[in-house]
């Protein structure tokens, strides 16, 4: 069994055909077919069935492919590291985070970073959760800030903070007289967001409403919290939203109330799982934790 045979097998499995595999490997189709035939002889069982001009993997091929993928993980991570080094300008730290974090948590962090690392450029992208993970995985971000999600190969995750979501009410809303709100208090209200097809960040909100049998009138949906806060301020309805932005919109007259039982989410820091964390990124992570806690304390 030779490495080139394994590469051909993996390419066919990933691309779905010999033609596409030959393009991936930059070799001819007959060469791919020959490598597959040699591998089948080496392993002692058929890997593909040929039907209607197409190849279909056998059950044995599926099992072998799982083992091949595990063996290629280290090589893929090395490729990722090379992309990170190639794309990373000297003296630059790249952050990918949720828009609420970029707006409410990072400004004081950036001020402190400038004082300590005045010569280092910082880029900040405000993205959704999936895009944050993709940036970190591809080595296009040195630090990601998002919500807890399923583990992903190539991404190192550390806890940031757990945040209890709040209810944002339009100025003068009838529920503003309560110090805190029960989920049941929201029954019948015009509710802004979340979108059902949005990130898993929103699942806990829908689950809490359903668990208490609360029906809300959902006439406006949005995926991100900042526009939701703005729609609340405009009097279009109420919403259950992340608490980081609360103090910003309280200045505009939005009423903020805690919700009981609490609806909490774990926020996390993400880094490419390659080597030690660079000192500026490590410093940033520590200060983001401090400022996130301070932001929640003042919300």
Which stretches are poorly predicted, pLDDT < 50 over at least 5 residues? none
Strand content: 15-25%
Number-wise, the strands total 13
**Distance between the amino and carboxyl termini:** 62 Å
Series of secondary-structure elements, N-terminal to C-terminal? HHHEEHEHHEHEEEEEHEHEHEEH
Rg (C-alpha, Å): 25 Å
The CATH topology annotation of the largest domain reads as D-Maltodextrin-Binding Protein, domain 2
Which CATH class of the largest domain? Alpha Beta
Tally of distinct domains: 3
Task: Using the alpha-carbon principal axes, give the shape.
Answer: elongated
Second rung of CATH, namely the architecture of the largest domain? 3-Layer(aba) Sandwich
The portion of residues assigned to helices is 40-55%
* CATH homologous superfamily title of the largest domain: Periplasmic binding protein-like II
Number of H/I helices: 11
For the largest sheet, list the strands in their spatial order.
4-3-5-13-6
Give the class from helix and strand content and strand pairing. alpha/beta
Average pLDDT number: 87
Main β-sheet description = 5 strands, mixed
Family: Belongs to the LysR transcriptional regulatory family.
Protein name: LysR family transcriptional regulator
Signal peptide: 1-20
Pfam families: HTH_1, LysR_substrate
């Amino acid at each position: 069994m030779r490495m080139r045979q394994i590469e051909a097998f993996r390419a066919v499995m990933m691309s779905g055909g010999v033609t596409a595999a030959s393009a991936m490997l930059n070799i001819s189709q007959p060469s791919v077919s020959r490598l597959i035939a040699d591998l089948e002889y080496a392993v002692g069982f058929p890997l593909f069935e040929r039907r209607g001009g197409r190849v279909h993997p056998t059950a044995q091929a599926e099992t072998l492919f799982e083992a091949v993928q595990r063996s290629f993980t280290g090589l893929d991570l090395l490729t990722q590291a090379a992309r990170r080094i190639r794309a990373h300008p000297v003296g630059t730290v790249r952050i990918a985070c949720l828009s609420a974090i970029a707006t409410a948590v990072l400004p004081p962090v950036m001020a402190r970073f400038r004082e300590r690392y005045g010569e280092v450029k910082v880029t900040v992208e405000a993205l959704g959760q999936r895009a944050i993970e993709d940036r970190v995985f591809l080595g296009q971000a040195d630090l990601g800030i998002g919500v807890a999600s399923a583990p992903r190969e190539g991404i190192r995750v550390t806890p940031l903070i757990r945040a209890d979501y709040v209810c944002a009410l339009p100025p003068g809303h009838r529920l503003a007289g309560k110090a805190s709100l029960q989920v049941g208090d929201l029954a019948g209200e015009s509710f802004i967001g979340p979108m059902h097809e949005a990130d898993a960040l929103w699942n806990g909100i829908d689950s809490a409403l359903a668990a208490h049998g609360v029906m809300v009138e959902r006439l406006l949906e949005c995926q991100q919290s900042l526009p939701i806060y703005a729609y609340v301020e405009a009097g279009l309805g109420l919403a259950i939203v992340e608490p980081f932005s609360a103090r910003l919109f309280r200045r505009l007259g939005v009423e903020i109330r805690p919700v009981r039982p609490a609806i909490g989410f774990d926020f996390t820091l993400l880094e490419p799982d390659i080597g030690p964390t660079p000192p500026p990124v490590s410093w940033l992570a520590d200060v983001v934790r401090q400022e996130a806690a301070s932001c929640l304390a003042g919300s």
